[in-house]
């Protein structure tokens, strides 16, 4: 395992040689708010985060992130508290902006072709799944169909470094996705867990198999018939994990109308989520849009 390729905050001293020096010399930064992840160097992480932002060429819509996967639309981390650090780094690609890339060099050109290809296939899967769910719900209307814009969306590539102290960190904290659908391609390492009937289940990796998570938008569109699944990612002690997730959202301006929720657009939802994360430190989600009923 070449852990030199990890960003410094994720580089771990070899097991058992974790030195006093390392801990004490970093206490003021690494442990400033809590001892949730004892070995991570928060200051170093923030500096790297800033460097990543600076290094990402202006003409590329890609966003690199480190430790904090909740991002604003412009790509800055919404939270920067040490207790919110997730053991993950990643690349976020807004697929609707791929055409803006005029790559001068061969590597970027082929990367763009790959992304376009990936998007094309997963867009087809997303549309087929969404339309059949609408049919099941008797919501087969043009307006409902616009609640999915499969050609936009975003693609995220994640790397979850291995971590000897895996029990003290989350690869990704428990959350629901804000998307309509999220289609995940995970490697064989595993670590994804979903909550069902108050119990956590491991999603066993099966080669050549995609995992489809329903997001908050799908729950609202279906009037709670389909639930947005709570999930989280565990860190592996010995192996890094890679996953790629394609998120699809409603069309810009498309209104989600249902019986249990106020009419809202995805932009309304996203703005509320951003505000809640900033002010409360966590996402409230669909409860913000639920209609109050008297029964
Ligand atoms: O990497 C995974 O398995 C899950 C990622 C995830 O939950 C997310 O991106 O929202
Ligand atoms: Fe997720």
UniProtKB/TrEMBL annotation:
Residues 1-12 have a biased composition (Pro residues). Pfam families: 2OG-FeII_Oxy. Residues 1-24 are annotated as: Disordered. Keywords: Iron, Metal-binding, Oxidoreductase. Residues 150-250 form the Fe2OG dioxygenase domain. The keyword Iron applies. It comes from the Eukaryota. InterPro entries: IPNS-like_FE2OG_OXY, IPNS-like_sf, Iron_ascorbate_oxido_reductase, Oxoglu/Fe-dep_dioxygenase_dom. Residues 13-24 have a biased composition (Polar residues). GO terms for molecular function: metal ion binding; oxidoreductase activity. Coiled coil: none annotated. Belongs to the iron/ascorbate-dependent oxidoreductase family. This is Fe2OG dioxygenase domain-containing protein. It comes from Rhamnella rubrinervis.
């Amino acid at each position: 395992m070449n852990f030199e390729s990890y960003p410094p905050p994720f580089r771990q001293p070899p097991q058992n040689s974790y030195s006093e020096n390392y801990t004490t010399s970093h206490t003021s930064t690494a442990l400033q708010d809590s001892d949730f992840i004892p070995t991570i160097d928060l200051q170093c992480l923030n500096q790297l985060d800033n460097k990543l932002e600076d290094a990402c060429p202006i003409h590329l819509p890609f966003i690199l992130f480190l430790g904090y996967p909740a991002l604003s639309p412009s790509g800055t981390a919404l939270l920067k508290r040490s207790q919110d650090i997730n053991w993950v780094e990643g690349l976020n690609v807004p697929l609707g902006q791929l055409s803006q890339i005029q790559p001068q060099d061969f590597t970027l050109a082929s990367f763009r072709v790959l992304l376009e290809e990936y998007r094309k296939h997963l867009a087809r899967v997303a549309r087929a799944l969404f339309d059949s769910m609408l049919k099941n719900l008797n919501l087969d209307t043009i307006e409902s169909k616009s609640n999915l814009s499969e050609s936009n969306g975003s693609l995220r590539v994640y790397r979850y470094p291995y971590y000897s102290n895996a029990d003290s960190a989350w690869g990704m904290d428990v959350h629901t996705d804000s998307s309509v659908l999220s289609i995940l391609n995970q490697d064989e390492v595993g670590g994804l867990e979903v909550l069902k009937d108050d119990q956590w289940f491991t999603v066993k990796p099966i080669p050549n198999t995609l995992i489809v998570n329903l997001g908050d938008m799908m729950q609202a569109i279906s009037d709670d018939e389909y639930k947005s699944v709570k999930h989280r990612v565990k860190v592996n002690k010995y192996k890094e994990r890679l996953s790629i997730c394609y998120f699809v959202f409603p069309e810009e301006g498309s209104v989600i109308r249902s019986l249990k929720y106020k009419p809202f657009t995805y932009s309304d939802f996203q703005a509320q989520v951003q505000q809640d994360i900033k002010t409360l430190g966590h996402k409230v989600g669909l409860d913000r849009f639920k209609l109050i009923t008297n029964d």
